[in-house]
Amino acid sequence: MIYDVIIVGGGPAGMSAAIYASRSKLRVLLVEKKYCGGQIISSMFIDNYPGFYNGIIGSDLAINFEKHVKKFGVEIVYDEIIKVENNLTNKIFSSNFNYFSKTVIIATGTCVKKMNILGEEKFIGNGISFCVTCDANFYNNKTVVVVGNNDNTINGAMYLSKFAKTVNIVYSKNKFNISKELYKKICLCYNISIIYNSMPYEVIGDIIIKNIVIKNIYTNEKTVLKTDGIFVISDLKPNVFYINNIKCNKNGYIIADKNMNTSVKSIFACGDVIEKQLRQIVTAVSDGAIAAINAKRYIDKIK
User: Fold this and answer.
1) Domain check: are 254 and 176 in the same one?
2) How far apart are CA 74 and CA 76, in angstroms?
3) Can you give the pLDDT at residue 291?
4) CATH number for position 249
5) What separation in angstroms does the CA of 106 have from each of 45, 79, 114, 293?
6) Do 224 and 240 belong together in one domain?
7) pLDDT of 219 over the 80 cut
8) Which of 193, 213, 232 is the C-terminal boundary of a domain?
């Protein structure tokens, strides 16, 4: 069977693309590696998605997305795509099966770099966040710890300082390798402290986070910091598999234009996997809709 469009990735961008493609009377297959919803599954609470003015639990929003997709009869399979070859049609390879389609929409998102310490998994989405823009507002007048090692860490900490009472940055080296301008800015933030030569060691709490244990990398001395939340701010990694001739930027993100076209005519990309400024649910669903509409236009042209 040759599908009109195969969407790889079942996060907000992929599910939005599936809704718009199926409503355009296209034969759609959505391929997801694990479960529909993407990273919003691990979001304890979302209060910046339009229409849910009282907020919504991340997993509930993911379920709503999936129900909406199924309403329009989209076929969903759970499989891991390994590569895509583009010839007259697109041949999509997985470890179990091969699929064929006229167009492909890549919506595989990104993966976060976890701390990999004791207690972390218990509090992901419930005190441990990987998105400052999403969750800073939950920590008004509270104490937070920021873990990271680049400019994004500093920028994230400064953004948090507008909400939190205290921001403690845990950094593994004896100084930040950042620009003088950025260093001057952070020095002006009276509620930010930097703890150098240290690494996170363990997260402690019951229902909520209470403390984080950090360890000095030279002396192995452990220190307990009281905290209401932890933000892990490090470089995200795009989930990009092999696609022949597709162009990516130096960080591995797929380069797509405003219509979600990639460097390969019949392949579109959307959501967090593409080079973009803002990675949020609302921008992901917008990208997905644009990708689906332009996939339909491409199919109409080749008929």
Assistant:
1) no
2) 6
3) 98
4) 3.50.50.60
5) 26, 14, 24, 14
6) no
7) yes
8) 232
Nearest CA-CA partner of 39 in 118, 125, 98: 125
Q: Which domain does 47 fall in, by range?
A: 2-111+236-302
Could you say which of 232, 258, 281 is where a domain stops? 232
- DSSP-based three-state secondary structure for 40: helix
How many folded domains does the chain comprise? 2
* Cβ proximity of 139 and 165 under 8 Å: no
How does pLDDT run across 105-142, given as a tens digit for each residue?
A: 999 999 888 899 999 999 998 899 998 988 999 999 99
Residues 218 and 127 in one domain: yes
Residues 283 and 276: beta-carbon distance below 8 Å = yes
Q: 281-302 vs 12-23: helix axis angle to the nearest 10?
A: 40
The whole-number average pLDDT for the span 81-99 is: 88
pLDDT at 175: 77
Question: Do 10 and 35 contact (CB within 8 A), yes or no?
Answer: yes
Beta bridge partners of 226: 211
CA–CA distance, 152 with 233 (Å, rounded to integer): 7
Q: What own/partner pairs with CB < 8 Å and gap ≥ 24 does 182-185 have?
A: 182/151, 182/154, 182/155, 185/154, 185/158
* 231-254 residue pLDDT tens: 998 878 899 988 888 999 998 999
* Cα radius of gyration (the chain): 21
**Sign of the CA dihedral 50, 56, 59, 65?**
negative
CA distance 164 to 153: 15
Structure tokens at 255: 């380069």
What does the pLDDT read at residue 189?
A: 87
